[in-house]
Amino acid sequence: MIEIDQVHKSFGNLEVLQGVSMTVNKGEVISVIGGSGSGKSTLLMCINGLEPIQRGSIRVDGTNVHAPDTNLNALRQRIGIVFQQWNAFPHLTVLENVMLAPRKVRGLSEAQAEELAVKQLSHVGLKDKLKVFPGKLSGGQLQRMAIARALAMSPDYMLFDEVTSALDPQLVGEVLDTLRMLSDEGMTMILVTHEIRFARDVSDRVAFFRNGVIHEIGTPQQVIDDPQHPDTAAFLKSSH
Q: CATH number, domain at 162?
């Protein structure tokens, strides 16, 4: 499980996370919703060790992410993260992009890495794009390639940071379908998303962030259909 306990994170004088606590259980899907600048994406970066924290702790299966002796490279193999921007290597084919980390980080042979990459690209519906270069893909296909690349590291957890926000509306569905498939397969996920209807459909719990604090957390029925906090209700009303 992921245990987040009273986490504070600042950039200079700006305190972005102000005592965030949350537990994510194995196999659980948690959607994090809230306005821009509320600290949602920063939380994901802190869970993955990409950003340091000032106070509190984050533990992944008992390992303290921010302890000085923690091997972050080993930890990050278990926590996949997919951002808004897919950051593909333009000079490598789709297959080569997905093979790269398993070869360089996990030390797989070329044959092993290729078998794994083909499997994950097939998984996200890109088996016919193996030899294509990223410049020839749509935004939705690029985002699915980024998901396959993260899955090729065989992570225990997946973090998704607004993965549909840079896409044209007609491409959003194919990426959400991929996330829904992972949810159905039991992948433990934290989704930062503005797709409220999707969050209601796939989440075990939903957390509403505002000003670096979780104002409300509960089942989708509790938080989205019957919010108790006025800020949650106002945000959801503005999101329709």
A: 3.40.50.300
